[in-house]
Amino acid sequence: MTKNRNSIYSALLANLLIAALKFIAGASTKSSSMISEGIHSTVDTVNEILLLYGLKKSRKPPDKLRPFGYGKELYFWSFIVSILIFGLGGGLSIYQGILHIIEPELPGDPTWNYIVLGFSFLFEGTSLIIAIREFNRGRKGAAFWESVVNSKDPTSFLVLFEDGAAVLGLSIVFIMMQLNHAYQMPVLDGVASVLVGLLLVCVSMILARESRSLLMGEGIAPETQKKIIALAEKDQAVIKVANILSTYQAPEEIMLMLIIYFKQDLDTADITDAIERIRAAIKAEYKLVEFVIIQPKAYTTPNP
């Protein structure tokens, strides 16, 4: 989590520095695409602040109101970030672009635009490299998309997708700006804004899907479930595990519930001791399991 926070800080600093530059350049050169990029960077800056806020809130200790803690605050704010990318980033960029397609304006001196784009590539590219490094550390050899889907920490891929979209958006603006000034086609400036907006909409839909899945409550992998069942069934008091339920309360916190058939000749004290043994064994083997709830169930012999 600390490593992911480093990538958030780097992205926040990069976006904060270049957002102002893009707006100044866009206003002075009447460039719709640069204004759209300014909107993009501003939204990304707000997003990083919200992610940091979500991280802080998720570490709040459990209380009477939230006995299982506040870990899912991070998932909630990650979902809000994806909505902001869609509405403010994508929506406003598309709107701005359509206005300039309908009423294109002749561009001013492009020098400042190119200077700002150069600095933007430098800052956004550096932030993207940091995000890629942090993401790859957690992949452990898995495929890229598999790592995104299986990740329980949205900060690991949110910043990566944001920075990737930022660099791709800058490339689109750079190409369209060159064509605009080479062929005196100011409509391309609006087209660039629309393309950047559509890019952000696509990214936001991917992020919203993953954040929603985490917010709704993803469980542990089937392979891990089988291992936990086998671990519980090793106990001499257990007949078998009837069911296993799990959910991630936070990226590093799992709540687990087991419904277990215990042997019929056990008294209450024996079952209590067995529950404590099983709970201790699971928590010793799986450090992310914070809560282990075990429900005993009477076993009835099936009819022949």
Question: How would you characterize this protein structure?
Answer:
Keywords: Membrane, Signal, Transmembrane, Transmembrane helix, Transport. Pfam families: Cation_efflux (PF01545). The structure is a single chain. This protein is mostly helical. The chain folds into two domains: 2-216, Up-down Bundle (Alpha-lytic protease prodomain-like), CATH 1.20.1510.10; 222-297, Cation efflux protein, cytoplasmic domain (Alpha-Beta Plaits). 69% of the residues lie in helices and 11% in strands. It has helices at 2-29, 32-58, 73-102, 111-139, 144-150, 155-183, 187-216, 222-233, 268-285; strands at residues 238-250, 253-262, 289-297. The protein has a three-stranded mixed β-sheet with strand order 1-2-3. Helix 2 (32-58) runs antiparallel to helix 3. The chain is elongated, with a radius of gyration of 26 Å.
Summary keywords:
single chain; 304 residues; mainly alpha; Alpha-lytic protease prodomain-like; Alpha-Beta Plaits; 2 domains; 3-stranded mixed sheet; 69% helix; membrane; transmembrane; signal; Cation_efflux_TMD_sf
What is the structure about, briefly put?
With 304 residues, the protein is mainly α. The protein has nine helices and three strands. The chain has two domains: 2-216, Cation efflux protein transmembrane domain (Alpha-lytic protease prodomain-like, Up-down Bundle), CATH 1.20.1510; 222-297, 2-Layer Sandwich (Alpha-Beta Plaits).
CATH superfamily membership of the largest domain = Cation efflux protein transmembrane domain
Portion in helices? 55-70%
Q: Which word captures the global form?
A: elongated
So what's the CATH class of the largest domain? Mainly Alpha
Count of distinct structural domains: 2
Class inferred from helices and paired strands: mainly alpha
With helices defined by DSSP (H or I, 4 residues minimum), what is the helix count?
A: 9
Radius of gyration: 26 Å
Q: How many DSSP E strands?
A: 3
Mean pLDDT across every amino acid position: 88
- At the fold tier of CATH, the topology name of the largest domain is Alpha-lytic protease prodomain-like
- Report how far apart the termini are: 54 Å
Q: Tell me the CATH architecture of the largest domain.
A: Up-down Bundle
Q: Note the run of SSEs as H and E.
A: HHHHHHHHEEHE
Proportion in β-strands: 5-15%
Q: Characterize the main sheet.
A: 3 strands, mixed
Strand numbers in spatial order across the main sheet? 1-2-3
Low-pLDDT residue intervals, each spanning 5 or more residues: none
